[in-house]
Amino acid sequence: MSEAADRFxxxxxxxxxxxxxxxxxxxxxxxxxxxxxxxxxxxxxxxLGFRLAFYRLxxxxxxxARESAWAAHQMYxxxxxxxxxxxxxxxxxxxxxxxxxxxxxxxxxxxxxxDWAAEHDLDCRCFRLRANAGGTQLQLTLWPPxxxxxxxxxxxxxxxxxxxxxxxxxxxxQAEGYIKRDADQHAVExxxxxxxxxxRRLPLAQGQLTLNRLWLELADGSALRCLQLRxxxxxxxxxxxxxxxxxxxxxxxxxREALAPTGPSLYDHPLRWTLESPAAALALQxxxxxxxxxxxxxxxGWSGLLQTDGTSGGQPVQxxxxxxxxxx
Length: 328
Fold this sequence. Notes:
Pfam families: CrtC (PF07143). This protein is mainly beta.
């Protein structure tokens, strides 16, 4: 994939985000992803975690014009993870499609692969999600928070002159909809986060470096997003950063060593993490809500709901999050 990406130019070094335009696709860029994750309540008072992601990859920077409806210039991959930790229940599924014959595609409002879709509704400024896994159907509406999205760029620590990618991270969305299992339909509601990223450099595990991504949403209204590349074995200095969005304030950059795995690995993946920053008065512990093997998907890696607690500003705080691990 890196060879294909090298044929594409870098996006502008600086990107002025515009909404709702940047919710849609960026077909001139090599690739992009739409990422939605959240914690829902409503099934027998149990928490349910979900993660729905769509990836688009271009096959060539200047594809020739073709009249055939079968001709495809884009490939799409979507994956869904659903889990109910208290019931030790988890399912994952995926869809792969070519951008031809309407089987998969993206435009200024939506991205879809077969019957899975994420669509931005201009009237309500909300996202509507639809997917299914393991016989369970998920249909949600995500309502936007009062605060703005946080711009993100590049892969921190790679030391390149150009960021190579741009996007946004947006915490604090409210989710509502339903989960349907066989003939049983359950209303659900909860919290969610949204991330959209596009360009020539997408976050992937590289060689001996693992990719670790963690998002936390705390009960006091603050949120964190961490991206870290770590050597698969012991040693070395991790690359990456954490962004902390405190309630009502601008995002702050935390030291890269603030995030670290703790305790023994489970199923060959570090499922317990600490995040400590004396300067930000943060001391948090986060662990998988349901320690389990990674889902069996085309792009291997661990994906699941986090539970977190600790202190922020000297006060006790709890919350939830999502963890994505690759390259182990």
